[in-house]
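We treat protein structure as text, and this decision shapes the records that our systems exchange. The remainder of this section carries one protein's record, kept here as part of the documentation:
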Amino acid sequence: MQSHQLHSMLVLRGGRLVFEEYYNGYSRDNPHDLRSATKSITSLLTGAALDQGVIPSVESPIMDFLAKSYPDVDNKDDIQTRHLLTMSSGLDCDDFNWRSKGQEDRLYRTQDWVASFLALPPVHAPGEVARYCTAGVIALGEVIAQASGRDFSDFADDALFGPMGINNYRWARFDNDEKVDTGGHLLLTPQGMAKQGLLVLQEGQWEGRQLIPRDWIQASLQPQTQVRETPYGYLWWMDTLPYGEKRVKVIWASGNGGQLIFIVPEYDLVAVFTAGFYNSDKTAVLFDIFYRSILPSVIELQSHLSGNEQL
């Protein structure tokens, strides 16, 4: 009997699947709850919305799109789309602070999560401070839905999942199923996750078609701010990790429990994990596997280690 909580591990190199294993009764056909790794896919879809002209720019105020549905909202006109992409709305929303009025567990106890986000008081000017805020990403999804005049799930299917041949997935919903949870809980198979990583690695291109603008991918993967002392782009985490005498840039999507998409553009590498380490620091073991086992498998990196060096 397996005692660990790992559910899947996939590795792609050069666009090819070179490792794929499932554990604890999971298989390639099981869609997995991505938790907050969903946010990074919402980032991709924001790029698609910008490309289609649905949203004019990242500087567009969110109330340009939300005011019709939320006419009683005051003092939110200076919050721009980019502030939701970088967790810097300035509102009292911090998922890692139980006293924050916008902490996600409080959010989930309300009916309309977007209304709850827009009702939060400001504590900083927009863009001044970044705090991890699920509610803001959910509001971003509603911005896209309102701007496009479509249910977010339909927009996502046409812009991303349909062209990629992904049909085994399901969005979570709220407000009596009227709206889509774009901040978490998307159900997607590990292979579907790997495709997202590969799409990013290919700078938004899929089978000869540019699904997401190249410049959007590039901007998303550049540090825009810092969240919890880690460089953060447009809803993607990133860091430059030491590897012997070299430093390697790694980008990742991350969800509670160990739902991870690692991307290493320099070495054409994608690694995917799903797991059940919910609300546990044991998720760190997956970062350890990636750093100590998957990265060392890249032959081009091995020359940067001395024979006696230990990872």
Confidence is low (pLDDT under 50) at residues 307-311. The CA atoms of residues 267 and 300 lie 8 Å apart. The longest helix spans residues 134-148.
